[in-house]
């Protein structure tokens, strides 16, 4: 479907950014179709944020180019800004405002009505916390508010930089429900994360990044499939069967009546990372 | 316009809800005003306590015109016991005991308070001289007329209101700019605003407007408190203090920007602003007049923008100078603001790292 489009939502060619001796982003190319949910996955320091900030138009790349919705992002493109929504790594709030005042302020910057902003507050589950100051919100609530502020003007393309970083597992899972719905309306979403499970659960396609380079970019299923890793079947009694033909093996187990309590583990993105870099994934 | 109002509202709310900022912008300088206004409100020497012993006709039958002066200078009590009266003077309960021996007025006074002693001797001498002239029946050949000149003899509140107001505005403008720049940089709000369809002009305009509004509120409070509690009297062109204060605010915001640009944390920025503004307040006559300071210090103080702000404010608010007196200081402050802003812009970084 994406191939039918004339213009990709995001088109990145050979982006490079160097800090001193460090090539933070090293010749990255990336095409994201409209309506796609893309996860950029990599350990800390892989260059995810720098890449994202260049695509958003916050940083001038040393070389290469980036365009969003067919428009160049650098220098600051006033025509593009109302069409993109951003959530930066830190919680970028006005100090000492309540959640409602916060989103109303951002709504005003984009010329959006307050009622619409209140709807977003409702949608991210913060209606009850509307009167609380941003300093008094929990980490998860602050991230929800931050995401609502990024989406308040219904942008066509959304960039979320590690929205679940520093959240406890429970709050992280809660946020997934919200995140998985935000590209429903045909919105394009780019999200960086250093959590494998998050990329796998949310993204249509995942770009795995390390040392400033994108190693692979494909759907999670295709990435795992290409890995050609054997499937591990763990039986109730602890016996582990490793096989490349799981369907055949499971049929055999069914005949033996040993299917109860069986766990089937196919390859994960973690295996993909190990396969690509030769080292274990450390978020 | 919507964006401008929204940003201004957000910044203003953020300031009003910051108790520390409000304290240092308004309450703290006001404490100094009340303190100095109260401490130095009565700079004239109090009345001289005089005990009149027995019958002193010189004091009883004062010549016309002399009784007002006498009343204003002396607080008179009467006694018939000279020894007791002198004992009271010795103890400090009274300043002078007078008795009349024939045609001679005898005054027993202490020199504990040289000012009062001088006044006592002078006033009694004048009283005797005046009476001498009066009894000749001739009109005096020479007369004296006194007029006070409003300058160094400004009363405490007249002097301190403009100076402390200048310091208060300098402080809140510099702190506000420094803390905003640092805070917004750290939370990446600067970056976030860069990605919103709002111009730098609008963002800066909103921040400046709020600081100017705070400065004018400070002015209203200072003048209000000065006038209500301490008889502050403004002179003709006092309204020129408004544009002067606006330019002063811009000048100290630029100093705050510089402090914000060269530091890495919000605390560091506020400390740097304090480091620049507080010594400047001492050297610019906000807390005490500089007349007694060494010449090199007075010369140096002329470089400081706060000195020019204070001088301009004193000139138009209480010295009765014409409105044009504020133009020089305004020009100096404006040039200072432009130069420092350019330096701060060169040192500006989007991020702390």
UniProtKB/TrEMBL annotation, chain A:
Organism, as annotated: Nocardioides caricicola
Keywords for the protein's UniProt record, in alphabetical order: Antibiotic resistance, ATP-binding, Nucleotide-binding, Transport
This protein's name: ABC transporter ATP-binding protein
Entry-linked SMART domains: AAA
Lineage, highest ranks first: Bacteria, Bacillati, Actinomycetota, Actinomycetes, Propionibacteriales
Membrane topology per record: Peripheral membrane protein
CDD domains xref list: ABC_DR_subfamily_A
InterPro entries xrefs: AAA+_ATPase (IPR003593), ABC_transporter-like_ATP-bd (IPR003439), ABC_transporter-like_CS (IPR017871), ABC_transporter_ATP-binding (IPR050763), P-loop_NTPase (IPR027417)
Domain ABC transporter: 10-236
TrEMBL record, chain B:
Major site of localization recorded for this protein: membrane
Record membrane topology: Multi-pass membrane protein
Residues of the ABC transmembrane type-2 domain: 117-351
Annotated compartments: Membrane
The keyword Transmembrane appears for this protein: yes
Transmembrane regions: 21-40, 164-184, 204-230, 236-260, 272-290, 323-348
Any single Pfam family the record assigns to this protein: ABC2_membrane_3
InterPro entries: ABC-2_transporter, ABC2_TM, ABC2_TM_bact-type
Keywords, in A-Z order: Membrane, Transmembrane, Transmembrane helix
Keyword Membrane assigned: yes
Name recorded for this polypeptide: ABC transporter permease
Organism, as annotated: Nocardioides caricicola
